[in-house]
Every structure is written in C-alpha cells, then in structure tokens.
Amino acid sequence: MDQSRYRTLEFRRSGRVLTIVMNRPDSLNSVNYELHEELGRVFLEAADDPNSDVIVLTGAGRAFSSGGDLDWLKAQVEGNLTPFVIESRSVRRIVHGILDCPKPTIAKVNGDAIGLGATMALLCDISIAADTARFADPHVRVGLVAGDGGALIWPQLIGFAKAKHYLLTGEAIGASDAERMNLISFAVPAAELDAFVENYAAKLAAGAQTAIRYTKVTVNAALRQLFTSVVEIGVAYEGLTNHTDEFREGVNAFAEKRKAKFPGIGTD
C-alpha cells in the first residue's frame, strides 16, 4: 500500500493486519469527493497487498464517518455536480471493493456511522462497534435515494420490514440495539473497543487463510449477485434525485440546522 497515493486515508499495520483509517477527523470523517474516490480504490489495492491477511476499517477521532460532506453537498445543490458516470463508478467500486475483497474485513466503528459510513460498516464481514456509536442512513432526509448500498445491505441483515423503517425515515439506531437486531456483529464498551478488535483481528489472522477467504467468497456470492441489480438501480435513482427541489431543500435545511419543508410531488 503506497501511502503517497492517499491523502484522506491512513494505513497502519500490526503483523498481518492492515488498518485503513478514514482521516478527516475535523469533519467527523465526512465523505467529500477526494475521500469518495480514494475509498473507491483502496479495497481493490488492499486485496492485492502481499503483507496483510485481515483488513480493519475505522475512522480517526470521534466518528467512524458522518456521511456526506456538507460542503460537497452544497456544491452539488449549486450545480457543481461531478459527472454522473464518474461518481457512479466510485460508488460501485466502494461497494464492490468491500464485497469482492477475498480477505476478511472488520469495521471498527469507533463512533457514529452515518450514510455511506453506515453502508461501509455493514458491508464489512464483521462489524464491531463502541456501544456509544449510532448507525443511520438518512439519505431521504436530504432528499436523496439511499442508493450507495444501504438499500442492498440493510434488508439482508435485519429483514425488509425493519430495513424499510430505517431507510424511509433516516432514523438512527444505537449500537446495542443494532447488535440485538443483528444489524452488526458486536457492540462493546467504548473503552474496550481497541482491545476487542485487536484480539479478533489476530484470531482471524492466525486462521487458515485459504479456507477463510473461500468461505467469505462463498457467503458473499448472494450479495454480489444482488449488487448487480440493487446497487445499479439505487445509484441511478440517487443520481436523479440530485436534480430535485427536495434535494435542494434538504441540503439547505441541513446547512441552516432547521427542519426541511419538502415541496411534495404535484398531481396536476
């Protein structure tokens, strides 16, 4: 892994465990264009890294990732949209990169995981969260479709009824409740998170790597098949909602820290 090729991600190593750190702590690791692009290629490179067998994804500072960067969203509202073909490619690469990486991936959720942050944490093979962390996919609250993978992974983990509730309302769920609902693997006291993840990663790294990787590939086969339909549709619809009055109102309300007043869809 060549650190010089990344500005918003940091790499750390402990034996055969590679930790990828989203490193924008001042913005709670919100996803701007640069981080989005780097996340779209890091898992592909980590899959080929000869010096690691286990990958841990985490965030610097108080959050795992707070979702979309407000300045990036405001720029999109103002018409500074990344060409859709480029942005949709990055979304596909992020989701596919995590699902298709043969090495076991662990999400070390040190704080809130929101939007794409939640999607990445839930796509990882093992998700371990501090009991103070929250998970949410609030795309709809800013007038966007949950198209970056949330519509794929939430229903597979907690069923369609509960997934629809959280995706259609954008409500957050605490880590302890998320564990009870099987949204995540483990919720542990925040003070014990580092040691718990370190021990868990070491256990995986000491295992039979060929068997572990082929087992992961087998388990993820169904998710990779769903990827070709659900994510493709979701990315397209999210791209469409970038051009709506709902998106403009949602982002402006978020920036102004007020409740959004969505215009609704007329019937005339």
Descriptive account of the structure:
This protein is α/β, with parallel strands linked by helices and 268 residues long. It has a single domain, classed as 2-enoyl-CoA Hydratase, Chain A, domain 1 (Alpha-Beta Complex), CATH 3.90.226.10. Helices cover 49% and strands 14% of the residues. The strands form 2 sheets. A 6-stranded mixed beta sheet has the order 1-2-3-4-6-9, sandwiched between helices. A 3-stranded mixed beta sheet has the order 5-7-8. A hairpin with a 2-residue loop joins β1 and β2. The longest helix is centred in the last third of the chain and has 21 residues. It is globular, with a radius of gyration of 18 Å. The chain starts with 8 loop residues before the first strand and ends in a 12-residue tail after the last helix.
Sheet with the most strands? 6 strands, mixed
So, the CATH homologous superfamily?
2-enoyl-CoA Hydratase, Chain A, domain 1
Oligomerization status of the protein chains:
single chain
Q: CATH topology, which one?
A: 2-enoyl-CoA Hydratase, Chain A, domain 1
How does CATH name the architecture? Alpha-Beta Complex
Number of strands: 9
Strand fraction equals 5-15%
Low-confidence stretches: none
Please give the share of residues in helix.
40-55%
Note the overall shape.
globular
The residue-averaged pLDDT reads 94
Distance separating the two termini: 56 Å
Q: SSE string, helix = H, strand = E?
A: EEHEHHEEHEEHHEHEHHHH
What is the radius of gyration?
A: 18 Å
Strand order of the largest sheet: 1-2-3-4-6-9
The number of helical segments is 11
Question: Mind telling me the CATH class?
Answer: Alpha Beta
Would you tell me the structural class of the helices and strands? alpha/beta
